[in-house]
């Protein structure tokens, strides 16, 4: 479905757009104290979005951002301790802050961070933020509108949708899936997952191109055409859409156009979203290429819902959703404190439930940063490692990359190397044994 937007609004671009969002007043000092910023502007210097404060607060910075990008493009600045590529500014460090740029003309995206995250991770986060913008507007539309009106104010297109971008930015600091480019699946018996998929397929109207059942923000199962698949990056955008608190999702079915940039950045799919349970924990997404298929997808939703109720599978999803993460004790490895395992073939991952001493926000973030550091070592462009091991007075960290999996583990600090190896072998045996339950190994295809 190609994007046919009305030009009427675009022709008003000369008028000043008043940002209707309520922004808390933020002083310069408060702004600088924030650990991480995301800033989006047009290449004409128009502010589009900022994570903290109002867009007007970045007007004064827009000129500096434009100048830095232009200097590098023109080859007149090499940066101090920064990295450039093909005359494009990538990142540089100034004091405790790292500045990372993503140039996707006509948009400039910038992350300013003092979180000690690797620049490669901050760059991939900017790609997700960019894709979130594209999911609302399509790349074709942005390209065309800025070609006609270089000083167009994109905020009017994004009005009311900022909450999805803000939620995504918060999730980038807590969800392993974003740096692993992987999906978290709800642990549930393989036979149950397969039966849910079969009900979806038998209830499907031909207008339904894709179907996803999601519980507690985790994928339960996916229905797709044999010829096409959904990329994990696109599924993560859909999961963010479902997880973002929104009053418009409170009742009935929601019908909304959404662009999935990896699938097709030039047009919209049309998404039918509904909750299948009273607690609003279990969500069904049905995607169609036709903007006129709401009625047909509504019938499909009703048939799937009835099928899941009649087969008592809805109750099984509800039960599984009460235990969305694996308790570390279940693994039976006393030295193990936390783990993240990525299944390469399916682009899915599982992480253990944060437990003492990592069950408070500060420590949970610290563990997340340790895994980010290990990931950046395994995926270094200069010298990628197969193994990464680090031992401190507080913990031992082991990461391991193979053709089939990636593994990130946090263990007791005094664990010997032999003890670490034995713990990892036991963990991998547990993963293999539980594979059918923790991962969706077969998507329903038609």
Q: What is the element layout, followed by pairings?
A:
Elements: H1 7-10, H2 28-33, E1 36-42, E2 47-50, H3 59-73, E3 83-85, E4 88-94, E5 97-104, E6 107-113, H4 119-137, H5 139-148, H6 155-158, H7 162-171, H8 176-180, E7 183-184, H9 190-203, E8 210-215, E9 218-224, H10 232-243, E10 254-258, H11 261-264, E11 269-275, E12 282-288, H12 294-310, H13 313-321, E13 336-343, E14 348-351, H14 361-378, E15 387-391, E16 396-401, E17 405-411, H15 417-438, E18 444-445
Parallel strand pairs: 7-14, 9-18
Antiparallel strand pairs: 1-2, 1-6, 3-4, 4-5, 5-6, 8-9, 8-12, 10-11, 11-12, 13-14, 13-17, 15-16, 16-17
Helix pairs in contact: 4-7, 7-10, 9-12
Question: Brief description of this entry?
Answer:
By secondary structure, the protein is of the alpha+beta class.
**Rounded radius of gyration (Å):** 23 Å
Q: Main sheet? A: 6 strands, antiparallel
Average per-residue pLDDT, rounded, comes to 89
Number of E-type strands: 18
- Overall shape: it is globular
Q: Please report the distance between the alpha carbons of the first and last residues.
A: 21 Å
Low-confidence stretches: 1-21, 76-80
What percentage of amino acids are in beta strands?
Answer: 15-25%
Strand order of the largest sheet: 2-1-6-5-4-3
Oligomer: single chain
Secondary structural class? alpha+beta
Q: Tally the helices: what do you get?
A: 15
Question: How much helicity do the residues have?
Answer: 25-40%
């Amino acid at each position: 479905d190609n994007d046919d937007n009305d030009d009427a609004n675009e022709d008003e671009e000369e008028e000043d757009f008043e940002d209707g969002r309520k922004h808390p007043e933020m002083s310069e000092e408060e702004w600088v104290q924030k650990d991480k910023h995301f800033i989006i502007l047009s290449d004409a210097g128009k502010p589009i979005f900022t994570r903290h404060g109002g867009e007007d607060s970045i007007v004064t910075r827009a000129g500096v951002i434009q100048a830095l990008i232009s200097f590098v493009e023109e080859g007149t600045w090499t940066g101090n301790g920064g990295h450039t590529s093909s005359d494009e500014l990538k990142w540089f460090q100034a004091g405790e802050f790292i500045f990372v740029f993503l140039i996707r003309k006509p948009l400039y995206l910038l992350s300013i961070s003092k979180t000690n995250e690797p620049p490669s991770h901050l760059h991939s986060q900017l790609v997700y933020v960019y894709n979130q913008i594209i999911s609302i507007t399509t790349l074709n539309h942005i390209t065309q509108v800025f070609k006609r009106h270089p000083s167009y104010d994109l905020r009017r297109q994004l009005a009311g949708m900022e909450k999805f971008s803000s939620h995504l930015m918060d999730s980038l600091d807590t969800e392993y899936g974003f740096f692993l480019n992987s999906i978290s699946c709800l642990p549930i018996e393989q036979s149950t997952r397969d039966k849910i998929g079969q009900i979806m397929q038998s209830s499907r109207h031909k207008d339904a191109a894709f179907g996803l059942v999601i519980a507690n923000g985790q994928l339960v199962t996916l229905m797709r055409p044999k010829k096409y698949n959904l990329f994990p990056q696109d599924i993560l955008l859909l999961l963010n859409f479902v997880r973002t608190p929104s009053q418009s999702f409170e009742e009935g079915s929601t019908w909304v156009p959404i662009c999935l940039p990896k699938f097709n950045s030039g047009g919209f799919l049309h998404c039918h979203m509904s909750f299948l349970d009273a607690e609003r924990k279990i969500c069904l997404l049905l995607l169609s290429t036709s903007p006129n298929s709401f009625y047909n997808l509504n019938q499909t939703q009703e048939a799937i819902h009835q099928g899941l109720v009649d087969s008592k599978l809805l109750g099984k999803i509800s039960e599984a959703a009460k235990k969305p993460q694996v308790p570390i004790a279940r693994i039976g490895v006393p030295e193990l404190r936390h783990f993240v395992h990525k299944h390469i073939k399916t682009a899915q991952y599982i992480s253990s439930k944060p437990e003492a001493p990592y069950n408070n926000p500060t420590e949970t973030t610290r563990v997340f940063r340790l895994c980010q550091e290990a990931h950046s070592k395994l995926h270094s462009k200069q010298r990628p490692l197969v193994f990464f091991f680090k031992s401190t007075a507080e913990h031992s960290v082991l990461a391991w990359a193979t053709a089939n999996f990636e593994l990130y583990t946090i263990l007791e600090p005094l664990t010997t190397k032999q003890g670490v190896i034995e713990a990892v072998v036991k963990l991998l045996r547990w993963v293999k044994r539980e594979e059918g339950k923790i991962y969706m190994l077969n998507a329903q295809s038609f």
